[in-house]
Amino acid sequence: MKTVIIYLPLDPDKAKMANLPIKLPILAEDFEKVVSKNELPSDVILRGLEAQVKTGKKVDYYLSYLVYILYDRSRYEMNHRNFDKAREYVKKAVSYRKDYRYPFHLGIIERENGKLEASEILLKESITMNENFLPARLELARTFMAKNELEDSIEECRKIMEIDPNFTLSYIVMGDAYLRIGQAKSALMLYQKALSVDPNLLSVHWRIGVAANMLQKFSLAQRELKASISKNEGGWQAKYNLSYSLYRSGKIFDALKVLKELLRDGIETPEIVMEMVIIQKLLGLYEEALESVKLGESMHIMEKGFTLASIDIYAFNAMTDKAASICTENQDPDFVSRKDLLRLEGNWKVNVDIQRLAKLLSSKSTELSNRLGDVENGIVPGEEVFDESLLILFNEIVKIHGTHPYSAEKTLTQSAMAFSGSIESVALFLLLYRVYLRINAFGSSMKDAIESVVPSISDISWKIGKSVAQIVDDEKRYDMEENASKKIRCPADGSNFFASAFLTLEGHPNPLAFLKSTGVSQIKFEVLRTIILSQPSFQEF
């Protein structure tokens, strides 16, 4: 049967944009479909170009378009992870003409199939055939990344920049390599450089957000990650990283909201579930956290961080036998320390009525008095509030629970959230309690105690953890005596004062008498006395 070809005239500008001939050959059998649907499917274009080349007329002219379309289809299939189909298009293209594009496309396919050595050889072959074809150099840099040969990847990107400083993707790949080796500052600069060259470049904002998170630039991270999400870039990872930056900057309820949205969207990954457990634990949402732990166990999450968090959640839910059974399966020092905490917790079953605690505050602060009705109704404050008198709760709770760590931390956390609504208030309470526990249960000095708890407090509030760490590193940074009589106006003030006090009182022959001499407020004195003495008797002074 004779092949009939119809030449469809195309708009010159549109033809140029699509890299198609102005007179596009189409098989007669396809013509009616093209006209009726007013579209040009790729398979119709391919059949027409292949039929034209077989005629032997204007072969050189039409062959270039045919080979281009075949490689274009190969890239389409690669983007959709159909690598076998992509390989078929590459083989068909090379059957017509072999040039630098053949090893280029095949090199990408081999890399995605895990054949990294073959990928490197093919991409180098492509570069040898056309040294100025920068995409081949870029893909070689990506193959080096896949081989974890990061310095080679960086060097290949540097060569691209020397040839064309405006080839923006080289900045992104080099930034990815620097990020992989932990040089987030260099990565951030490269990502920002790429954006300065092309403000509309895709997939840059979420990368800036990730690098900013690593550099603890959480405001920048949030801005860039939100920009990425608004453009539907970065996938679920952008939202996950946004939740992290929100959490680290103290916006912990917002962080939890993002994670819950991801789960509602069906994104159940170990990272998301682990982060959910951690944040729910920090907020005192222990029953919710238990459900998240069970979800993680059903997913067979085996990461150490998740297992340690699971032990804590079971203990906070009074399931200490379950928590202990997990500990016995692990001999890691961190699990041994959890055994010590569970031993201290024992079978302690004392519950504290938060509404009873509220009566201790009713006459102490107008702002906190206004919170009592909300507490009675189980409402967490929409705005964060703090008053020094909140420390009365700390003393009362420690007096009740003593060195039973899970019961004490549960009540301290839930009380701080109920009355203050601030994760920083939780961090302050737990900073004080963990120092108390180290001194009175494990015999640590005050200096050793404050140094040992800084990392765990940083996980609750990066701001407070950083501030306390700076005081531990440089005791002269904060003058405890100068601030002794000043009212604590926020959790950070409190953490700074008490951290400095622990260091100042270390080794002092009569610490309580010294405290009185500084003019310290009674609330501060009682807190320090509770921590320093294992059985405090609260007296006026």
Short account of what is shown:
The protein is mostly helical and 541 residues long. Helix content is 70%, strand content 2%. The protein is elongated.
Characterise the protein shown here.
There is one protein chain. By secondary structure, this protein is an all-alpha fold. It has 32 helices and 2 strands. It has helices at 12-18, 28-37, 42-54, 59-79, 83-96, 101-112, 116-129, 134-146, 150-163, 169-180, 184-197, 205-214, 218-230, 235-248, 252-264, 270-282, 286-298, 304-316, 320-328, 333-345, 354-358, 366-369, 372-376, 391-401, 405-419, 423-442, 446-460, 462-473, 480-483, 491-505, 511-517, 522-532; strands at residues 5-9, 23-27. The chain has a two-stranded antiparallel sheet. Helix 13 packs antiparallel against helix 14. It starts with a strand and ends in a 9-residue tail after the last helix. Mean pLDDT is 91; it is low at 534-541.
Features:
two-stranded antiparallel ribbon; 541 residues; disordered C terminus; 32 helices; mainly alpha
